[in-house]
Amino acid sequence: MVSSGDFCQTRRVCGVLIRIDSVTKRYPDGTVAVDRLSLDIPDRSITVLVGPSGCGKTTTLRMINRMVEPSEGTILLDGRDIMRQPVNTLRRSMGYVIQNAGLFQHRTIIDNIATVPRLLGWGKEKARERARELMGRVGLDASLAKRYPYQLSGGQQQRVGVARALAADPPVLLMDEPFSAVDPVVRKGLQDELLRIQEELGKTIVFVTHDIDEAVKLGTMVAVMRTGGRLAQFAPPAELLSEPADEFVEDFLGADRGIRRLSFFPSAGLELVTAPVVATDSTAEQIAARDTPDAPYLLVTSPDGKPLGWSEPRNLTAGEIDPAQLLSYGRPFVAGTDSLRAALDCAVLSPTGWAVAVDADGRVAGVVSQQTIAEAIRGAHKESTSEAKALR
Amino acid sequence: MSGFFDIPSDLQHSWLGLIGLHLREALLPVLAGLVLALPIAQLCVRFRWLYPPVLWVTTVLYAIPSLAFFVVLIDYTGQTELTVMIPLAVYSLVILVPAIVDGVRSVPQETLAAATAMGFGPLRRYVQVQLPIAVPAIIAGLRVAVVSSISLVSVGTLIGNQGALGNLLADSMFYHRPELAVNSVVTTAVLAIVIDALLVGLRHLLTPWMEDTAK
Question: Which residue from A5, A159, A293, B5 has the highest number of Cβ atoms inside 10 Å of its Cβ?
Answer without folding.
Answer: A159
